[in-house]
């Protein structure tokens, strides 16, 4: 039987939604491994909409589910309908939408809250001992909800290659163990069944990000 994996998106676009290359890599690697992806997103307004040419917010308003449907080619479900019983694993790609729409990390950092719907889904998979895969910034969701867990967002020393390395410090302040890793690697927390990879937390070639996401997907499926 093919493994059924929920993929939760946060919109469409790196600055206000899911990072499209990460989301696509997750879906490609799931397909390659013979798994069945079921894509979900919360039916809610985005925090804001960013013009991806100018890098500036615009006055328009968009819906997270409607925007996520662009990546899912329309084959998407409301996150409120997700039933953990019929699924084998959960994967959440990164992008600023994780920090703006699925949580308030973008504005509150480690003092953030996770949206009730997203929290409920994460806790359901965790309680059912089903693996959770996390890319880029999405490990902050696990760090907030599961103190003592192990995740990676790459490296903990800021430099040109690792511009977001201070995130690792915030994760540690939440009581999480951060494990340094390279962009092509994934870290497995066997106790919590969490698998994380840094993806675009690193200024790396696209194929290296793709390879790291692939490693994460394979580890998730191995645990499922």
TrEMBL record:
InterPro entries registered for this protein in UniProt: Class_I_gatase-like
CDD domains from the UniProt entry: GATase1_ES1 (cd03133)
Protein name according to UniProt: GAL3B protein
Organism of provenance: Cisticola juncidis
